[in-house]
Amino acid sequence: MTERTIWARRLSEDPAGLLALNAPPGETGQVQPTGQASTLQVPPMAGLYIAPEETDLPVVARALETGDTSGLPPALASEVDEARRVTRFSKVRVPGAGGDALDAVQWIHGDGTPRPAIIMPSPWADMGWLAYAVQGMRFATKGYDVLAYSARGFGQSEGEVEVAGEADIQDGVEALNYFTGALGQEPTKVGFLGDSYGSGISQIVAAQDSRVDAVVAMSTWGDLATAFYENRTRHLASVAALLGAAKNARLSKRTQEIFDLVLAGADIDDILLWAEDRSPLTHIDALNARRVPILFAQAWHETLFPSNQTLEMFNRLEGPKRLLFSVGDHSGPEMSGMIGLPNRIWSAANRWFDHFLREEDNGTGNDSEVVSQIMWSRALETHPDWAAVTQDTRKLYLSSPAEGGGDGHLTEAESAGWERAFQVGTHTLAEVADTVIWTGLAEMLGRPKVYATPDIPRSDALVWSAPATSERLRLHGIPKLHLTVTSSTREATFIAYLLDAGADGNAHIITHAPFTAPAATIGGSGTVDLELQATGYDIRAGRRLMLVIDSKDAFYSDTNEAPHTLTISSPDGDASYLELPLG
Q1: Taking the CB of residue 210, how many other CB atoms lie within 10 A of it?
Q2: Which pLDDT score is estimated for 43?
Q3: Are 292 and 356 in contact (CB under 8 A)?
């Protein structure tokens, strides 16, 4: 057994580990960030996931096929034995769109009893259906007939990657057609479940195929265009991460062209048009017409599909819906469940399908419930809908530094008639994360990234701080920033970071957002109203809120031309402010 395999298995023994942050409520104690720079050693990733060879997933798959459980821990071995006793497990080739064969596995009960079925399109990963080996087995043991397949272009599936394009959606329809034939009868009800890539496919299949009765969408997107191009700013790191994770996949020529255009910053209108039909939000009328129940699970610090666009999808749905927010980054909150550990996201998925596919009265069918895991207490807060997450708002006005210089202040008293400038084009210590996925994994292990804010050059960034809080400050919802911005060039990009800072200036990130102003004349000013990404964050007493604005972050494109300057001002009659959502 390798050291990294031991890492994966010992997560359940780590009081600050993935199990501690994502187990069902009541099973673990409280976790607080260490406040120290992380020296965390994380396992190798298969694209966006823990490498399968560092987990029990391949052994589970082989054991399901052969019955040899000798390489498994006793608990998993027992689950495999039970699944083989009550279902027939087999590897199959599913004829997808255009006759392309999809690599798949199925669990079928052989007693002829009509049952609900679950279809699981794979994540954006070479391992394909293997990601669902444990959870598919568990659904089957509970009484579901289950089919999990690798999305076209990935792993052993034929075809080319179309990014939830027409062929991918038809694959989902054909997978259900095939499985119905394999069962020899219509399922009593049908659920689609997907993580990441499979989640977007699942939502759109449900919009187009009336046989789908419920959906579970983990680490998902609502508007793909916004995920690639937010506030006129391209998401470079996320697109690069997707390309890296698909290095062994077979991307269609058009898919490769689009990704290249995003990285190059060319033909933005073409990108947005391409993304439109691949966005569940485009298909929301069809979902609403049938009131399809959808469970969403999302991470607060999601770097691939930032949360606000999924939140818009959630808010516009009219059927039963539930949204689970968690600490971490893309696919992190649900990953421990994939490798067989207790996990509240997968527990919620089971309850969702049990209610809507098996008609169990288990209290999970509330119309628009939101469950937030709060950083860093790990407390779970349940709200009847998103509107109830924010109980009140408070404006903190940006002010100029006190005489003699230093940072600006965040104050409840309106402050106007000032301006502050910084030079653009330089990376500072302020950044979204060190890397996609990895920084979020460290957060889940209780070791969030530390920002040494005293070391941020004030010539390359602007900083405002509020006084230390005398009691806990609960930021629950979407913070908003109102600014007047003037660029010495035709366009301007800035990134706003909201931080939680201690007395020594060391801080953790709460949320952020990028913004690129439209082209204007040199020296032109514009008013910016910017929504930061949604958050559920409690600032402990004695710490303080900090706002940092700079011009460059490796996660984003920018239009700044060094050595020009960007000026933030607060004109008379239009003061700049930060609006805080209070829980």
Answers
A1: 12
A2: 47
A3: no
pLDDT at residue 82 is higher than 80: yes
DSSP tally for the chain: helices H, then strands E: 16, 28
- Residue 37 inside a domain? The answer is no
Cis peptide before 376 (omega within 30 of 0): yes
CA atoms within 13 A on the CB side of 375: 31
Do 407 and 532 share a structural domain?
A: yes
Name beta bridge partners: 567.
Answer: 421, 486
Q: How far is CA 88 from the centre of its chain?
A: 34
Whether residue 369 is found in the same domain as residue 451: no
* Number of Cβ atoms within 10 Å of the Cβ of 85: 8
Predicted confidence (pLDDT) per residue in 443-479, tens digit: 998 899 999 999 999 999 999 999 999 999 999 999 9
CB of 43 within 8 A of CB of 361?
no
**DSSP, residue by residue, 305-345:** S-HHHHHHHHHH--SSEEEEEESSSTTHHHHHHHTTS--HH
Positive or negative: CA dihedral 476, 482, 487, 492 = positive
Please name the residue that has the structure tokens 């983990």: 218
Range of the domain at 253: 3-29+42-387
The residue from 361, 387, 413 where one domain ends is 387
Rounded-to-integer distance, Cα 419 and Cα 406, Å: 14
CA distance 520 to 525: 8
Closest listed residue to residue 122, CA positions, set 198, 45, 205? 198
Q: Which of 50-64, 249-263, 511-525 bottoms out in mean pLDDT, i.e. has the lowest?
A: 511-525
Q: Which of 372, 387, 402 is the last residue of a domain?
A: 387
229-230/233-234 β-pairing? antiparallel
Supply the DSSP symbol for 504: T
Q: How much of the chain, in percent, has pLDDT values that exceed 90? A: 83
Fill in the amino acid letter for 45.
M
Quick one: 77 and 225 in the same domain? yes
What CATH number has the domain bearing residue 577?
2.60.120.260
Q: Model's pTM, two decimal places?
A: 0.93
Inter-residue contact 235 to 555 (CB < 8 Å):
yes
Q: Which residue has the tokens 């075809």?
A: 159
Which residues in 376-505 belong to E strands, given as ranges? 380-383, 392-398, 408-411, 418-423, 451-452, 461-465, 473-477, 480-487, 492-501
The 10 Å CB-count burial string (b at 16+, else e) for 235-268 is: bbbbbbbbbebbeebebbeebeebbebbeeeeee
81 token code pair: 């034995």
Rounded Cα–Cα distance for residues 484 and 413 (Å): 18
Confirm if 513 and 528 have CB atoms less than 8 A apart: no
What pLDDT score was predicted for residue 44?
54
pLDDT (tens digit per residue) in 117-155: 999 999 999 999 999 999 999 999 999 999 999 999 999
Q: Which two tokens stand for residue 119?
A: 């279809």
The three-class DSSP label of residue 60 is helix
Residues 388-418: tens digit of each pLDDT: 999 999 999 999 997 767 899 999 999 999 9
Asked whether the predicted pLDDT for residue 8 surpasses 80, the reply is no
Helix, strand, coil percentages (3-state) for the chain, rounded to 5, are 30, 30, 40
Which of 452, 449, 473 lies closest to 463 in space, CA to CA?
A: 452
